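Exercise 7. Given the encoded structure of a 598-residue chain, write a plausible sequence.
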């Protein structure tokens, strides 16, 4: 915010957190507290992920009291025994652990019946073999097959020791049900609880009817199809799945150039990495571009001086790749020159994306707004088809935008900006302590006890927890002409901004957390179901006005470093907040928790 830094005003984050009045002006207290730095208000934090622990399935409660302690038909000759007739008596000896929800569903299911799902006679049945095949293919849907591996009793066994055989089969029965239910739960809602990753994640975790699924397994004629039907079926998930399968079939032998991390090359600079940059253009540029600049490419001998001829070459390459053609080689240009991520890193991003997709509804809806923070883009879909997209600015790394879903309810034109406490304390206070009338001069409104007071009348050395500051509608209001509201506990919304130049940047993590739109009138018209002219007319009135959205529209404020575009082609993006690292840590913590007690 240039406004806060003392220059021309530009947009700042607009999380409205109205407070109550601050204490009155007190000269003595002001002098005593003058040297005390105000405590900073920090945002959410990332956690050390704690995986869901496993618990033992209480198999001792599943034994039919009629056969408890009995050897039943085991005293008969082998040919007269009924296979598995008395096998339930071995249940207390089975030691299988599972997530709590899985264990509870199994106890309910097996406590109410005397038959088995996965075993028959003296071995495993065909339904077990079909289920095992699905579980072994878990990697195809971004899951870890090791989480669902079950030891299968050998085909060969000592027929004279049926007791041992049936003990093995009963253990397999319980382990198999635990594996299948864990798979189903994981593929429906994800292995990872997003709310345990950080305070920036906010999702109501899906519930899965596991006991009901076991009942379906008991009656279905196609076990494999039933299990696979639990995987997400959205077009986005299927595109991620196809891409994952394609990449796993590839070898990572594509020629690449390496450019030193952190390289920043500007016209007139001298940098030894220039040779690698030119090598990248030779490798990644189109034949047409290389023909047009053939003389420059042929004459370049590896010198570090970034001459005007080479600047023109780089600008042409940037334009061809859809980047800002400014001749400045930074992160975005380097990604284009080096070919982006390796196959291994792409696979990692796909697995993370498939996990995160499970947190969202399976099918985003017929009409919705989708914001992908790493892409710095917002997309509007209606009638199941993407209608348009636009550049956005999201929160900086220090003021990250949350990952959640909500519903758009209102468009407010000529909005007020209620300054959040975090900005008052962290950014405005130093200025206000040296210049108490600063907000008055800048046109802000300050309230104490519900009544307007001059900024200079507030004790800026005391607590500001009850001070309310807002910026009235104006041409340089931090929210611009309008904001689009989807009420949430994080006070995140979409809005206009007077800082239009930010949209020209490739890296647009620049706000205090809200989402700034490059074409706010277009988005407002779409969600309101009116023309852009009607939106312009409301703005031209100059009045602050809330326009209700006739039908609430889902909005997904998401974070995907791999995501398909409207043609179904998966695109990859920079992990601007480093969240994929925390996802991988959560995956590892989950593996350890599951296999430590397996």
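Solution.
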């Amino acid at each position: 915010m240039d406004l806060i830094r003392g220059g021309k005003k530009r947009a700042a984050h607009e999380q409205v957190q109205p407070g109550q009045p601050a204490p009155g002006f007190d000269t003595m207290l002001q002098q005593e507290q003058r040297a005390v730095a105000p405590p900073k208000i920090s945002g959410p934090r990332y956690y050390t992920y704690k995986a869901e622990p496993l618990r033992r399935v209480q198999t001792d409660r599943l034994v039919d009291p009629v056969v408890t302690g009995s050897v039943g038909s085991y005293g008969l000759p082998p040919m007269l025994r009924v296979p598995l007739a008395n096998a339930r008596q071995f249940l207390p000896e089975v030691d299988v652990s599972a997530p709590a929800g899985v264990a509870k569903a199994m106890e309910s299911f097996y406590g109410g019946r005397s038959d088995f799902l996965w075993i028959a006679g003296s071995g495993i049945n065909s339904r077990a073999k079909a289920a095992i095949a699905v579980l072994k293919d878990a990697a195809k849907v971004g899951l870890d097959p090791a989480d669902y591996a079950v030891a299968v009793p050998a085909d060969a066994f000592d027929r004279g020791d049926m007791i041992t055989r049936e003990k093995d089969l009963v253990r397999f029965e319980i382990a198999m049900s635990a594996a299948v239910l864990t798979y189903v739960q994981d593929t429906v809602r994800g292995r990872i609880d997003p709310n345990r990753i950080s305070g920036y994640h906010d999702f109501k975790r899906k519930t899965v009817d596991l006991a009901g699924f076991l009942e379906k397994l008991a009656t279905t004629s196609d076990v494999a199809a039933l299990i696979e039907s639990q995987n997400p079926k959205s077009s986005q998930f299927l595109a991620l799945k196809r891409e994952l399968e394609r990449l796993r079939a590839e070898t990572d032998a594509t020629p690449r150039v390496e450019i030193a991390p952190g390289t920043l090359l500007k016209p007139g600079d001298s940098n030894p990495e220039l040779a690698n940059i030119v090598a990248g253009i030779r490798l990644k540029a189109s034949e047409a571009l290389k023909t047009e600049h053939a003389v420059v490419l042929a004459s370049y001998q590896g010198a570090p001086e970034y001459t005007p001829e080479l600047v023109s070459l780089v600008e042409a390459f940037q334009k061809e790749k859809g980047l800002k053609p400014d001749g400045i080689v930074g992160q975005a240009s380097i990604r284009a020159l080096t070919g982006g991520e390796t196959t291994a890193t792409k696979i990692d991003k796909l697995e993370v994306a498939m996990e995160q997709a499970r947190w969202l509804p399976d099918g985003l809806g017929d009409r919705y707004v989708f914001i992908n923070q790493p892409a710095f883009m917002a997309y509007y879909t209606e009638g199941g088809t993407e209608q348009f997209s636009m550049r956005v600015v999201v929160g900086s790394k220090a003021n990250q935008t949350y990952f959640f879903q909500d519903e758009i309810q209102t468009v407010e034109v000529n909005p007020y900006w209620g300054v959040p406490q975090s900005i008052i304390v962290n950014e405005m206070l130093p200025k206000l302590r040296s210049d108490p009338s600063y907000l008055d001069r800048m046109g802000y409104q300050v309230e104490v006890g519900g009544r307007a007071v001059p900024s200079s009348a507030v004790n800026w050395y005391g607590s500001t927890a009850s001070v309310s500051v807002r910026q009235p509608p104006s041409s340089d209001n931090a929210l611009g002409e309008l904001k689009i509201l989807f009420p949430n506990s994080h006070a995140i919304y979409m809005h206009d901004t007077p800082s239009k130049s930010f949209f020209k940047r490739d890296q647009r993590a620049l706000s205090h957390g809200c989402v700034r739109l490059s074409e706010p009138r277009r988005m407002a018209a779409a969600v309101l179901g009116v023309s852009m002219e009607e939106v312009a007319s409301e703005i031209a009135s100059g009045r602050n006005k809330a326009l209700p959205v006739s039908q609430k529209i889902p909005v997904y404020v998401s974070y995907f470093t791999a995501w398909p575009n409207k043609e179904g082609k998966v695109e990859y993006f920079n992990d601007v907040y480093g969240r994929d690292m925390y996802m991988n840590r959560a995956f590892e913590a989950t593996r350890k928790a599951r296999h430590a007690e397996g």
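Remark. Residues 162-189 form the longest helix (28 residues). Students should compare their own answers with the one above.
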